[in-house]
């Protein structure tokens, strides 16, 4: 199989304390066993492993620096890491970073520019919305420092490369139009809106029941604002649903039937599953095999039976999903949202009804525009 994204946990700790964080606040304790930062020896092993993978597989992949908070590496070690990666990977190889933006400085931005690294910032909306959940270690606001970091990216001569966009976790009690307009005011080139982590045994924040559609209504209101805007930023989640309803293909994991390969490299060099699975149960992201870039070839790991079983989690197994005409668009959602004690991942997404609400509204809008739907939806 091919891998699309290698997500590298360059730091296992974070400098803020988001109350909804799946790493630190949803019961998993794996981060406690990891080095705080990726060492120089692991960086070298990682570089060699990614070189081998780039040669072995048939299509390119992206490398995403993640955490914890990746900028806890500090400027010097970040430059060392990026230099090691750029020295061995093709010039066209995509390297990007997901950060809370609190530690962005002119020096760090220049390092990212030097190595052509796209930076995505986590921000949930205006100050009142963001600071409801994204707080400092002592409960203090994070908003202003994040916006200051965004300004550094936006004002840089290479902003087109550096400022990749925003990642926003949905607060169903917020006003989607207000959040949308706020992000436009920050000149966000794209916004990736995310469902809150949760499952059938631990319902997501703001969701009253499996049958309720709080998130579906929020996203449907966002859709109205988005489609009315003649110059919108990209919203990948909505774009993918629209394309899939028209018979095209999406690019986002958890939608459609796209085969999306993702693997995680921890700060000690070990290989794990998609880290969002941590929210299901303690250790849900760990393989039985103790794979590591220090002693295993990535191409052989990704060709193994155990990795194939993990990859197969992307496809829903629930009869409800298999018998649903919207499955080709919905895709069954993210595996973590299907978890339930007892039946494990053999369930529709906890957001099943929210997805139906949103997709039905997309279909209605497309019909009103006279566009031709995927035959499966007619």
Automatic annotation (TrEMBL):
Record has Ligase as a keyword: no
Claim: Endoplasmic reticulum is one of the keywords in the record: no
Needed cofactors: [4Fe-4S] cluster
Residue stretches making up the Radical SAM core domain: 1-249
Gene3D superfamilies, A to Z: Aldolase class I (3.20.20.70)
Alphabetical UniProt keywords: 4Fe-4S, Iron, Iron-sulfur, Metal-binding, S-adenosyl-L-methionine
Name of the protein this chain belongs to: Radical SAM protein
Source organism of this protein record: Roseateles oligotrophus
Taxonomic path: Bacteria, Pseudomonadati, Pseudomonadota, Betaproteobacteria, Burkholderiales
């Amino acid at each position: 199989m091919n891998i699309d994204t290698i997500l590298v946990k360059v730091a296992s700790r974070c400098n803020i304390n988001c109350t909804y964080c799946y790493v630190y606040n949803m019961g998993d304790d794996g981060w406690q066993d990891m080095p705080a930062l990726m060492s120089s020896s692991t960086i070298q092993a990682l570089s060699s492993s990614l070189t081998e993978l780039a040669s072995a597989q048939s299509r390119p992949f992206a490398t995403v620096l993640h955490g914890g908070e990746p900028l806890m590496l500090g400027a010097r070690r970040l430059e060392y890491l990026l230099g090691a990666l750029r020295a061995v990977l093709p010039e066209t190889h995509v390297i990007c970073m997901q950060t809370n933006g609190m530690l962005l400085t002119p020096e760090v931005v220049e390092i990212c520019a030097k190595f052509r690294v796209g930076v995505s910032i986590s921000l949930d909306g205006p100050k009142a919305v963001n600071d409801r959940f994204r707080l400092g270690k002592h409960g203090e606001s994070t908003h202003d420092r994040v916006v200051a970091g965004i300004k550094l990216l936006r004002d840089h001569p290479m902003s087109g490369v550096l400022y990749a966009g925003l990642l926003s976790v949905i607060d169903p009690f917020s006003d989607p139009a207000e959040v949308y307009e706020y992000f436009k005011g920050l000149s966000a080139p794209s916004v990736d809106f995310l469902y809150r982590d949760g499952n059938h045994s631990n319902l997501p924040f703001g969701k009253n029941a499996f049958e309720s559609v709080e998130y579906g209504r929020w996203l449907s209101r966002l859709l109205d604002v988005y489609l009315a805007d003649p110059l919108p930023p990209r919203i990948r989640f909505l774009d993918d649903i629209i394309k899939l309803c028209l018979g095209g293909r999406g690019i986002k994991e958890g939608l459609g039937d796209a085969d999306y390969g993702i693997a995680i490299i921890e700060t000690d060099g070990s290989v794990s599953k998609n880290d969002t699975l941590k929210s299901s149960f303690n250790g849900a992201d760990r393989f039985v095999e103790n794979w590591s870039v220090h002693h295993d070839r990535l191409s052989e790991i990704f060709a193994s039976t155990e990795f194939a079983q993990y990859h197969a989690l992307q496809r829903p197994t629930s009869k409800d999903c298999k018998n649903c005409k919207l499955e080709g668009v919905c895709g069954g959602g993210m595996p973590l949202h299907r978890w339930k004690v007892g039946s494990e991942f053999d369930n529709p997404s906890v957001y099943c009804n929210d997805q139906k609400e949103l997709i039905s509204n997309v279909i209605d809008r497309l019909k009103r525009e006279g566009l031709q739907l995927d035959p499966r939806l007619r």
